[in-house]
Amino acid sequence: MDPALIDFARNLATAIAFIVGGGFILVGSLGLVRLPDVWSRIHAAGIIDTIGAELILIGMMFQTGLTQTTLKLALIGLFLFITGPTATHAVANASFIAGIRPDRLKRNESEAVLGEDTPEEMKA
Amino acid sequence: MTKALGLLVALFALWLALSGYFKPFLLIVGFLSCLFTVLLARRMNLLDDEAVPLQLRLTLPLYWSWLGGEIFKSALAVSKIILSPRIVLDQQLIAVESPLKTDMGHVIFANSITLTPGTATVEAAPGKFLVHALTNEAASAEAFTEMARRVAVVETR
Predict the structure, then answer these.
(1) Which of A42, A82, B90, B150 is deepest in the core (most CB within 10 A)?
(2) pLDDT of A79-121, one tens digit each?
(3) Is residue B70 located within the same domain as residue B141?
(4) What residues 25-54 of chain A have any CB closer than 8 A to a CB of chain B?
């Protein structure tokens, strides 16, 4: 294949990944401001550190091609894939134990899971 | 023994990927440091299913790619809520049954729930998770059963 064409395809793939990933990061940041409380904001942060960060990394991988750098980027992506939700869970769990009730909580099954151990503020 | 060998191979592969050196002296030194780490891990009784998850099926990357698709779909759904002129939420804390058999299976399931925007695992009890969902749609039980079914496929050989 024509090298110029391959270069163009690579740049195009990178551009698409960056634009979509950057878009998600922008929306996530907007969500951090617009959503009403810590519980809903967790999900906005979730958009940023899963799909936003991963798409940016994938975009970079198109640029580096089949090299060691790509392998390193893939490893960073893998670690984010595991540490991201762990950090999110830590924040959610801390809010739960601190007894911060979600804004206008519609359904609460805390006691079905934890029974006696449910923090006082989180009981239905 | 299998666990020790598995960890050694994985560590050396990581060492190679991060260093990129292929000189004989450095390769030997790298290998020795990996060996030393494995010996330390063995002394600390760390060579279990958690540190060296060799029990997972090799189709795990296939599960990850399916999960990637799910993440994309729910990220779009949450983005729609964020961008709507009036934000309407139905926040809820729901109980989700986890039918998985191994600890690693539970962890993969809980982490997958958290990775998907719109749902986050809050607490764990034996066989159950407490999950915070942003909307009714995110809290639908079918999505969780489907995810648990797929995790059950990869958790043990």
Answers:
(1) A42
(2) 999 899 999 999 999 999 998 888 888 888 888 888 877 887 7
(3) yes
(4) 27-28, 30-31, 34-36, 39-40, 42-44, 46-47, 50-51, 54
Q: Do A40 and B64 touch (CB under 8 A)?
A: no
Decide if B76 is inside a domain: yes
Of B129, B88, B136, B94, give the one whose Cα is nearest residue A108. B94
CA distance linking residue B91 with residue A110, whole number of Å: 13
In this structure, are B90 and B139 located in the same domain? yes
Contact B8, B35 (CB under 8 A): yes
Indicate whether B39 and B69 sit together in one domain: no
Flag if A43 and B117 touch (Cβ within 8 Å). yes
Contacts of A74 (CB under 8 A, 6+ apart): A57, A61
Same-domain pairing of B138 and B84: yes
Does residue B145 surpass a pLDDT of 80? yes
Among all residues of chain B, which has the CA nearest to that of A102? Answer: B91
SS3 call for B139: coil
Range of the domain at B73: 60-155
Q: What's CA A47's distance to the chain center, in Å?
A: 4
pTM (2 d.p.): 0.90
Domain shared by B147 and B73, yes or no: yes
Measure in Å the smallest separation between the Cα of A122 and chain B Cα atoms: 10
Q: What is the ipTM of this complex?
A: 0.87
Q: Give pLDDT tens digits for A39-56.
A: 999 999 988 988 999 999
